[in-house]
Write a structure and sequence with these properties.
The protein is built from no helices and ten strands. It is an all-beta fold and about 110 residues long. The protein has one domain: Rieske Iron-sulfur Protein, CATH 2.102.10.10. The protein binds FE2/S2 (inorganic) cluster.
Length: about 110
């Protein structure tokens, strides 16, 4: 599913998109786009309000960090990893998510 254009997601930035009512966070790490669940795995808080530092994303509410490349929670209080979704990039820069049929998996 096409969700955004690469030109709207500069390296080192992130953006929340909604797919079928589910928030998904797109992150551009040095030109590689990653997609993870858009809401923290600890409590309900949008991760685009957090901070990107290198490969890690810090949730602004309780400051858990997550590894963007693996989804792993690096600090408490979050314990569950962020769900990740496969991303592909079309030749024209369209960002495409490969999502399963049915509900989009989210860890909460
Ligand atoms: S809501 Fe993200 S660490 Fe608590």
């Amino acid at each position: 599913m096409a969700v955004a254009a690469l030109q709207d997601l500069a390296p080192g930035t992130m953006r929340l998109v909604q797919v079928d009512g589910t928030d998904i966070l797109l992150v551009n790490l040095d030109g590689t786009v990653h997609a993870v669940q858009g809401i923290c795995s600890h409590e309900y808080f949008e991760l685009d309000k957090g901070f990107l530092t290198g490969d890690s994303l810090t949730c602004a509410l309780h400051l858990s960090r997550f590894d963007v490349e693996t989804g792993e929670a690096l600090d408490p209080p979050a314990e569950l990893p962020l769900a990740r979704y496969p991303v592909s990039l079309e030749a024209d820069g369209t960002i495409v998510l490969e999502l399963p049929e049915g509900p989009i998996p989210v860890n909460e």
